[in-house]
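Sanity check. The docking grid for flavin-adenine dinucleotide depends on where the pocket ends up, so I'm generating a full predicted complex first rather than guessing from homology. Inputs follow.
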Amino acid sequence: MAEFDYDLAIIGAGPGGYVSAIRASQLGLKTVVIEKDKPGGVCGNWGCIPSKSLLSMAETFHSIKSLEAMGVKVDKTSFDYQKVHARSRAASDRSGKGVAGLLKRNKIELLSATATLTSPHELQLTTAEGKRTVTSKNILIASGSSPRVIPGFEFDEQQVLSSTGILAMDKLPESLVILGAGAIGMELAYIMNAFGVKVSVVEMLDRVLPLEDADISKVVESELKKQGITFLTSTKASDLKKSKAGISLQIETKSGQKSKLEAEKILVAVGRSPNSANLGLEKLGIAIEKGFVVTGDYYQTSVKSVFAIGDLIASPLLAHVASKEGEIAVEYIAGHGHEKRLDPSLIPGAVYTEPGVGSFGLTEAKALEQKLDISVYSFPYQGIGKANAIEKAVGLVKIVCDKKTHEILGGHVVGYSATEMIHEILLARKAELLPEDIASMVHAHPTISEGIMEAMRGIEGWAIHV
Ligand code: FAD
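Predicted complex below; grid placement will be based on this.
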């Protein structure tokens, strides 16, 4: 009889857990996935997938204006958000079924239960039928994260919404305050505004998307402002009050100017907290810092047989990061490990507003902070033929390079198709290509990607269309 029930037991069927399971099965590990909710995790059910479904419909709705410019008459009086919302839930359902199907096809057991660690090789499962235990040679925890709660702004999911609450809502409010101008806050601001909600975004820092390069934030803020969103940056919110009519809060600018902001609802999008409680981690002595599980080069925790990945650990809270971390951990467990912990400078980030953002590596400010000697070049979308042809000539491609070696240190794109375009620059960086390699590579005309070729030429001092 085998010593353990499984080679690998995975907690969570989000993009971290389910991708790890498939990779483990490919490498011959007998694997079980334990999920307390629906397969797909936050990404499939309350994150990437439903939000991108809404974004795509918001974009379509928003583009009606350009149809009108073409002389097409559109009746906008019968807009039905319930239908829009139902389509986003259908997209989530498809995604969850897809994940369950993939697990089945890879002969991976999926158990519906809440798991707790009781020893380095044992899990207690609480199922609808009662409790049971499973043993496993290795355990990988991919339990994800939850919307961060701030005192005084606790979610009731009626008037004070989390990202989950707003994605579950099938009726639009008339007005909405959004606390936090990170990727989630900005995407939901774009969606709600496009569907006619009066949106005000309150951000404590001095600009939207504060982690992006300042030039990128500037374009997004200015374009979304033109679309009708109000931005209150360098502004602190406090004193939330709820009444039948809606919510009100106090806002205070950096210079100390106070005023009141009112709306029907508020969305609090100020980050996420790792789901590290109630897993039995403390009892096993697994190291945790600020709620995040501490991991080593292959995502092993302080207990040798236990691994942790995804939103549960202190790395960018992104679906593709969770999946890649899982692949690295599982390959190590299976003895195929040659890749180590993800290099943060090679992780792409994306914001799916319109214009959208794709970026990786050092921003200009970060490079200067590190006292690096850099060359920076920004090529504007106005110089891209295709962007002009399709009336999307707002944006830029910005490259940050080492001045002497021309090594690519960062790539930043804002504009139409930015979330797709970023990968060409990232591939160049990963393959250790230089700007001159892309500058001299023939790009099809007319494409938005020509902007990348031009930005690389710019670094080399010979951009053509400026
Ligand atoms: P999760 O997806 O959170 O999955 C964890 C799973 O574990 C859950 O299903 C949970 O039920 C289960 N679980 C937890 N505890 C237990 C337990 N004790 N027993 C059994 N099961 C358990 N990222 C992107 O890359 N691109 C995007 O466009 C994007 N958009 C987003 C939009 C929104 C609105 C939000 C909120 C997030 C978005 N994200 C996006 C982030 C992305 O969703 C997360 O980074 C990703 O889901 C993390 O994956 P994970 O596998 O670590 O955890």
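Relevant for the grid: The radius of gyration is 24 Å.
Also worth noting: The mean pLDDT is 96.
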